[in-house]
Design a protein that fits this description.
Length: 290
């Protein structure tokens, strides 16, 4: 009788310990709900990937929130979100903070080649802008280059490319990539800096309308002019090509890591390609038939 009582107590304790504890997130790649934050500059490709993933796994829900790149990174460290998309490389201090707060190594999951592009009104006679002109304009009190805000991926990346920091640059602000395109005509002589993904989605009416309302400037480096075409993203010859990557604070193979793995596999990379961006893991191959 005594042994039976002890056995019953052990079973009861085991059952209690196996119950879901309050606050513990239980999910898997096939089910669950998480939040993901991305900068507005690459919201289109992020939306396409999450929509495709949730279609494949109906029991999953990925809440996509738009937030400036720097603030998204802070939210990841604080555990407010599970996954973010970044375009710039973290500083050494940021990598240390990531390691400290998440207890994970900085292992960026690269999935697409995107770019920062410079645009002017459609009727502008201008066709190119040089690297030196960009540098000069960003040190000019006239603030002739318009970005979509401070702490944004576009500003962060351009500053990093020019080996400086955003606080040392002089620029104008119109909040949102789309708003820059739509309002650029109001500011003669200004140049807009937007994310390629804003205008890259082929056959999408809104993307096509935005693209057709502005002129994308070629960027001149070492006396060569480069357009932000896919082929120039492949070899990164376009000077402001950037690699988009995921970061997560998920320590197990849950919904966050499941989504990241999907985005880096062939199916996810096809979605990236349909967004008009260069997939990081799939490069175009030409086969000659004889």
């Amino acid at each position: 009788m005594k042994n039976s009582l002890v056995l019953m107590i052990c079973v009861f304790v085991l059952l209690i310990s196996c119950k879901k504890k309050p606050g513990v997130v239980v999910d898997s790649p096939q089910q669950g709900e998480i939040t993901m934050e991305v900068d507005e500059s690459f919201a289109s490709v992020s939306e396409a990937l999450t929509s495709r993933y949730m279609a494949l796994y109906p029991n999953t829900k990925i809440n996509l929130k738009i937030k400036k790149e720097d603030f998204a990174f802070l939210d990841l460290l604080e555990g407010k979100v599970r996954v973010i998309v970044m375009s710039r490389e973290l500083s050494e201090n940021e990598k240390k903070a990531y390691k400290k707060e998440t207890d994970l190594d900085w292992l960026p999951a690269k999935f697409a080649a995107d770019a920062v592009v410079f645009v002017v009104p459609k009727d502008s006679p201008r066709e190119t802008i040089t690297m030196e002109e960009i540098r000069q304009e960003l040190n000019n009190d006239k603030k002739n280059i318009i970005f979509d805000g401070t702490n944004s991926s576009n500003l962060n990346f351009v500053a990093q490319k020019l080996d400086t920091t955003p606080d040392k640059l002089k620029f104008s602000i119109i909040n949102g990539n789309k708003n820059i395109v739509e309002q650029l005509n109001k500011f003669p002589g200004k140049v807009g800096a937007i994310g390629l993904n804003t205008i890259s989605r082929p056959y999408d009416p809104e993307s096509e309308k935005l693209k057709n309302s502005v002129k994308v400037l070629k960027v001149v480096q070492d006396n060569k002019a480069y357009e932000p075409r896919v082929e120039n993203l492949v070899n990164m010859s376009y000077p402001f090509t950037r690699i988009l990557y995921f970061l997560t604070n998920e320590k197990y193979f849950g919904l966050g890591n499941g989504f990241i793995r999907f985005s880096c596999t062939q199916l996810g990379q096809i979605v990236v390609s349909k967004e008009g961006l260069q997939p990081y893991h799939i490069f175009k191959r030409e086969v000659q038939m004889r």
